[in-house]
Every structure is written in C-alpha cells, then in structure tokens.
Amino acid sequence: MGIILTLLLRSLVVFLIAEFLPAVRVKSFGVAVLVAVVYSVLNFLLFWVITILLFPLQLLTLGLFSLVINAFLLWLTDALIDDFEIDGLGWTFIAAVLISIGNILIRMIV
What we know:
Helix content: over 70%
Mean pLDDT: 94
Largest sheet: 2 strands, antiparallel
Radius of gyration: 14 Å
Order of helices and strands: HEHHHEH
Number of strands: 2
Number of domains: 1
Number of helices: 5
Low-confidence stretches: none
Structural class: mainly alpha
Strand content: 5-15%
Shape: globular
C-alpha cells in the first residue's frame, strides 16, 4: 500500500509542477502517473550507477551534483514520454529540483 501511495503522491507533485511552471506540460493526471513511474524506475536503475561513476564530482560538490543527475533522469523521462514536455535545460533543472524537494517531503510523510 505504501508504494501505491508514494507513487500517487509523486504523480501529484509532477502534476502540480506542470500546473505552476509554464515550460512543463503534462497532458493529464494519467500521464503524470506514467511520468512518476518512469522517473522512479530510471532513478532506481540509473541514479546509483551514475553516482558511482561520477563520484569525484559528487565529492567535490558535496553531493549537489546529484541535482544534475536528477535533471538528466528527468530529461530522459521527457524523451521517453510523448505527452510530457519540458522546454529547455534550465526548466528541466528547476523541475528536477522541485521533484527532489517533493520526494524528500513524501519520504517524511510516508
């Protein structure tokens, strides 16, 4: 039950970000659920691999480089899903930071 609740809350975060940021577009809440699933799977499969490969950058930036990795994973999610669009790399980074903040809040709640 916790996984489903977490997934729905992440979908809500993605949907709200799309509502408030003008350069992020999600066609419907169903697409937001798909974005949350794909982003979570990519995050699960690739985040730690990329983090280990780029460990020196992580160390030099005191972990802040993980925001760049999250932006890359969000860009990859954007490339995989047709009904989810983000205009530009800067907006992708901003959306990734907001999603990361949302994930931290979700972990505190669930």
